[in-house]
Amino acid sequence: xxxxxxxxxxxxxxxxxxxxxxxxxxxxxxxxxxxxxxxxxxxxxxxxxxxxxxxxxxxxxxxxxxxxxxxxxxxxxxxxxxxxxxxxxxxxxxxxxxxxxxxxxxxxxxxxxxxxxxxxxxxxxxxxxxxxxxxxxxxxxxxxxxxxxxxxxx
Length: 154
Known about the structure:
Layout lengths: L1 E4 L17 E4 L4 E3 L4 E5 L2 E4 L4 E7 L1 H7 L1 E3 L4 E3 L8 E6 L6 E3 L4 E9 L40
Antiparallel strand pairs: 1-5, 2-11, 3-10, 4-9, 6-8, 6-11, 7-9
């Protein structure tokens, strides 16, 4: 994959272990994210994805579990035609503690996948399926969970 370092001091994305799906992305700036705060940070790189591929920016699972750091638009999508800097919209989900990131910290991971473009065909009615129009929770598996209380509007 063609890549340009817009910041010569940041590392090229790398896979931490053989077989990993995501290559680590780092931040180019020092930043403090207060609880609930979000910010868009640069990674110092731009890529040229071939047609038929897309990049998806995912949170790093360890940072999500330990510090509450996530990507707001998970996953962020990088289209094949985009040539600008990969920037990541981060959020601190921890309700009490600020999160300090330093230049060079690994903040997210880039997964590159083959994608298809669909040709949309409008029809008057869709064919039946086993699931039908069942939406959120329609396949079950959440018997122990209760629905949130509904509050009446004033």
